[in-house]
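As a next step, the fold was encoded as tokens, giving this record:
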Amino acid sequence: MTDLSQMDEFLEQLKSGKTEKTKRSLDLINSICKDQIERGSQNLSIAMIGRLSTAMGGPSVQAIRNTSGAIYRTLINEWHREKAPASKKLKKKTSENSWIEEIERPNLKWHAEDLYNQFIAQRNELNHLKQITELHIDLRPPQSSSNFSAVMLTEIERRALEHCISSEVIERNHWQVDDRGQVLGSRNNQIFKPGFMSAIKKILESM
């Protein structure tokens, strides 16, 4: 049978030095766990406690599972241990964080569990990064909102551009196009600046 006096003492130790909001949340979760035990329910899972807590305006399932919810999980785990049969209480866990269970002071246990959860999160992230075998870095500058691929031309506008750089127009006006895309007149005067021809072609190719 659960020793309620010990649980009350454990709760007060957890609440020591906490904000009023955290104290109220701890009281609510403790009350929910107590009600579950008194009703004969064996379900003290975070999912169940979180749903009941949310319905009563307390921490949600996700809030309890978050790193900052370690203190709530400590309280729920203590209720788990109190309701467990004696044979199960004596059975030691061999997990890598079993040493946390040996900490007697609730505040220290909560901090240890919080640090351990942070360690697990960082280790999982590191393992994920180790699985990346190829890393592609794009050093190109970000494209502006005036990207040609976003330009929408009407059919008349497109034909006008095609006509402007057509061989017919170039020959009729005695123009010359150099390797820089510059258009020169018959007197070697500049008609269009370097890059003009290539820019028009890129616009048309993107359509």
